[in-house]
Amino acid sequence: MAEPDPLDRTDSSSPPPTVAPQMLSATPSPSGPLSVEPKGRSAGEADDQVRAQLKRMSRRGFAMAGGAAVALGCMGWWIASRPLAEGIPWPLRRLLEMNERLARAVFRPTAQAPIFARDRAVEPRPNGNLGMLADDGLYRAPDPREWRLRIEGGEADRYRELTLDELRQMPRAEHTTELKCIEGWSAVVHWAGVRLVDVAAETGLASRSGMPFDAHRPSTSLYEYVGMATEDGEYYVGLDTPSALHDQTLLCYEMNGEPLTPEHGAPLRLVIPVKYGIKNIKQLASIRFTDTRPADYWAERGYDWFAGH
Amino acid sequence: MARLERKHALPTRLFHWINAIVLPVMIYSGLLIYWAHDVYRIQIGNWEVVRFFPAWIYSSLHVPFRLAEGMAWHFAFMWFFALNGIFYVAYTIVSGEWRQLVPNRDTPREAWQVVLHDLGIRKEPLPAGKFNAAQRMAYTGVIVMGAGSLLSGLAIYKPVQLSWLTALMGGYSLARLWHFLLTLGYLGFFVIHIAQVVRAGWNNFRSMVIGVEYTQGEEATHG
User: Fold this and answer.
1) Among A28, A116, A174, B23, whose CB has the most other CB atoms within 10 angstroms?
2) Residue A216 clears pLDDT 90, i.e. is over it
3) Is B214's CB within 8 Å of A68's CB?
């Protein structure tokens, strides 16, 4: 904002400038005197000159301020009135995506969610039953012998189905972490299940090469994303693979030492402490490793797709 | 003799007015977020003194069911809030203006005199200076509050990646409470600030727009 200083009326014939004492360190100005001095005219004329100067500065200053306010107001209106991109004006969606790229570039995806004392665990609010109800309006209660978790790697014909028993026989993992709902509440919960990264290692479906997945040597042929859905596909979440294969991400079958109850997602749910609660899908029925960014129920309704902590 | 005195440098005015626009956007979008889990109350025993917030406030401000929208605006404008604040603090340091803003040893005692003066109890004029002691405390305090909002906000925004910060705030739910209390603090600051600006008059307000104050005679006015 380089512009001629309106107060700069340096004139070698003028007496030394009168500088208000508090101005000396306040605004060290290279441009010199801070007041308009009379130039051999009467004091009245000099005062008029000062007031005219003030008028000019006011006119310009308020015109600029008003212009800036109008411009900013227009900018706000412009953002708010843009076509929606999945529930929010597209400039805001682009900014959320920018925040995601920044977070993924700056932070380590392996950072651990804090662990809490087991005795602080409580039952969280079961918030929502999307995709969990059968036609009769009651929680779907699949026969444990019939139930299968379907895991796809890339293509629909490259898949594996796992029974509950098979999942339970895989290495058991548990942790007491804080579930954080996007609404703002949080609850410490003790979860137990099998780590998704172990399931990925066992099935080899997380990577294009089909090589058994090794958490310590992540392969470059890993699919970028993971999509998950309930049996009827009514609720679905999309995850970035690094978060999904985080070593605290569980396919969970026990909560606070008890088998999952129907309202908390029996027989199997996702527990992913590096994401908001909306990503912790209940009644999980299918997992799909993919290179296309999977649809996400709440992201389609205006929320951040990444939703990462 | 009339003259114009330089009062607020251009960067100060820019940072001030940018913040005057960004902060309301942050507070309103924050309210859209807070509504989704509006648990804070002031309560004595079973008597609920104040409820944050009563339904009529929400409905008159069109708050309900706009959580996603609130988060989108909040996480977009947080950049302007943070960068504007950081640039302002950097500017006061580089320019040396911090010397007139940061409280010193005499400030607490003098600030009390300002309060007495503004309430009409103290009759003598206040000592001259660009900012009086109460202003020093208020203008430095609000910057500290801004830093608090930024840090408690980050503690809520990235509680896993910045878990040390969240822990420093006393945990996730406490970080959320600090973030909320600081926002109430801005509203309190705003009420006093506006009242004082009105009291100080047009010349003072104008100087925050055009940078200079008009003075007549030797005595400068301070607002």
Assistant:
1) B23
2) no
3) no
Cα(A309)–Cα(A307) distance, integer angstroms? 7
> Cβ(B114)–Cβ(B126) under 8 Å?
yes
Contacts of B199 (CB under 8 A, 6+ apart): B118
pTM here is 0.88
Residues with Cβ within 8 Å of residue B22, at least 6 apart in sequence: B77, B80, B81, B84
CA distance A36 to chain B (A): 6
Instruction: Specify whether the CB–CB gap between A258 and A207 falls below 8 A.
Output: no
3-state secondary structure at position A134:
coil
- Residue located via tokens 């980050």: B154
- CA distances (Å), origin A250, targets A83, A167, A235, A281, A309: 38, 11, 18, 11, 16
For residue B120, the number of C-alpha atoms closer than 13 Å in the C-beta half-sphere is: 1
**pLDDT at residue number A32:** 43
Are A86 and B67 within 8 A, CB to CB?
A: no
User: Between chain A and chain B, how many beta carbons pairs sit less than 8 Å apart?
Assistant: 154
ipTM of the complex: 0.89
Listing DSSP states for A158-184 in one string gives EEEEE-HHHHHHSPEEEEEEEEE-TTS
- Residues on chain B touching A128 (C-beta within 8 angstroms): none
In degrees and rounded to multiples of 5, residue A96 shows phi and psi of -60, -40
How far, in Å, CA of B84 to CA of B12, rounded? 11
Q: Do B36 and A111 touch (CB under 8 A)?
A: no
Percent of chain B at pLDDT exceeding 70? 97
Cβ contact A88–B173 (<8 Å)? no
DSSP character for B170?
T
Left (φ > 0), alpha (ψ -120 to 50) or beta: where does B143 sit?
A: alpha
CB atoms within 10 A of CB B218: 9
Those residues with Cβ within 8 angstroms of residue A156's Cβ, 6 or more apart along the chain or in another chain: none
